[in-house]
Specification:
Layout: H1 24-36, E1 47-51, E2 55-58, E3 63-65, E4 69-71, E5 75-78, H2 85-88, E6 93-94, H3 97-100, E7 109-112, H4 118-125, E8 132-135, H5 143-151, E9 155-157, E10 161-167, E11 170-176, E12 181-183, E13 187-188, E14 192-195, E15 215-216, E16 226-228, H6 239-245, E17 259-260
Parallel strand pairs: 4-16, 6-13, 7-8, 7-13, 8-9
Antiparallel strand pairs: 1-2, 2-3, 5-14, 10-11, 11-12, 15-17
Length: about 260
C-alpha cells in the first residue's frame, strides 16, 4: 500500500494474544518472514490496476497474472481538520477509550468535540482519569450534556480549537482561537473510516451503503475469484480479528451463498 499501514504511527499494539506490546512494524516483519518461508514472493510495490482475468499491474510497470485475488488493503482514518492532528495521530492523539485509556490512566486527558459521540467518550474516560477536559469545539452542548459532564467533574473548555500545540515530539496542549492554550498531554478525538480498496467499479464488487465491500462468510465478494478480508470489509475488526479473517475456511460448494454486510456506526 502506498500510504502504509493504518497503524504505522503507533509504537505498539494490544489485543493480539502473544504479541502484546509489539510494534506494528515488527508484526509485519514477522508475518512477511513466515510467508516467505512457504515460498511466497513478496513485492514492495503498489498495485495501480487489476484487470479481469486477472492481470495485476504494479507501479513499477510489472504485470503479474493471477487466478484469484485477495483484497486486504484495510481502511484509512479521516481525521478532524485541526492543524497538528495528523502529526500526533496514534501517538498522543487517540480515538478509543476502550483501546487506549488504560495506557494513559491517571494522566490529564483532553477530549475534542469533533463528533456527536464525544461527550460519551469524555464520560467514559472519567473512569481512568480524574483530570478530563472537554473541548466543546464545534459542538453545541445541550443543558443535559453539560449537566452530565459537570456531575463527573469534567471541565468544559469553551471555544473553537485552533491547533494542537507540541513541545518537541510531545503534545503539550490545545490552543483555542481565543489565543490561550489549555494543557493536555493526551487527547482523544473521534474520526470516520473509509475503506482503502483497489476494487474499481469495473469489477462490479458490491458494497454496502457506507462503501465497505460485502462478502459471504468465507470472504468471497460478488465477483468470482475475488475475496476481501480484514478491515476492507469489516470496519470494526481489530488487528487480531482482521488477521483471522484471512484464515476462514471456504464453505463447501453446495452451501447457500449468504451475503454479510458491514456498516460504520
Amino acid at each position: 500500500m502506498r500510504a502504509g499501514p493504518r497503524n504505522a504511527p503507533a509504537a505498539h499494539m494490544h489485543g493480539f494474544l502473544s504479541r502484546d506490546g509489539m510494534s506494528p512494524a515488527d508484526l509485519l516483519a514477522v508475518g512477511r518472514a513466515e510467508v516467505a518461508g512457504y515460498g511466497v514472493g513478496l513485492f514492495e510495490s503498489h498495485v495501480d490496476q487489476i484487470d479481469p482475468g486477472f492481470s495485476v499491474r504494479l507501479d513499477g510497470g510489472a504485470v503479474l497474472g493471477a487466478r484469484r485475488v485477495v483484497v486486504a488493503t484495510g481502511l484509512r482514518d479521516e481525521l478532524p481538520a485541526i492543524p497538528g492532528a495528523r502529526e500526533r495521530w496514534g501517538k498522543d492523539l487517540l480515538f478509543c477509550p476502550y483501546c487506549h485509556a488504560y495506557e494513559v490512566r491517571d494522566q490529564p486527558i483532553g477530549v475534542l468535540g469533533t463528533h456527536p459521540g464525544a461527550v460519551r467518550h469524555a464520560l467514559l474516560l472519567r473512569q481512568w482519569s480524574h483530570d478530563v477536559v472537554f473541548f466543546a469545539h464545534t459542538l453545541d452542548l445541550g443543558a443535559e450534556e453539560r449537566e452530565q459532564l459537570a456531575a463527573r467533574g469534567i471541565v468544559v473548555a469553551e471555544g473553537t480549537v485552533k491547533r494542537l500545540v507540541t513541545d518537541g515530539d510531545r503534545l503539550r496542549g490545545v490552543e483555542l482561537v481565543e489565543g490561550h492554550v489549555v494543557p493536555a498531554p493526551r487527547c482523544l478525538s473521534s474520526r470516520t473510516w473509509c475503506p482503502t480498496t483497489p476494487c474499481s467499479p469495473a469489477w462490479g464488487c458490491e458494497r454496502d451503503p457506507n462503501g465497505w465491500v460485502t462478502t459471504d462468510d468465507a470472504g468471497r465478494t460478488s465477483v468470482f475469484g475475488v475475496w476481501a478480508v480484514g478491515n476492507v470489509s469489516d470496519a470494526k475488526a481489530l488487528v487480531i480479528t482482521a488477521a483471522g479473517r484471512g484464515r476462514r475456511p471456504r464453505p463447501p460448494s453446495n452451501m447457500t451463498w449468504s451475503r454479510r454486510t458491514s456498516s460504520v456506526p
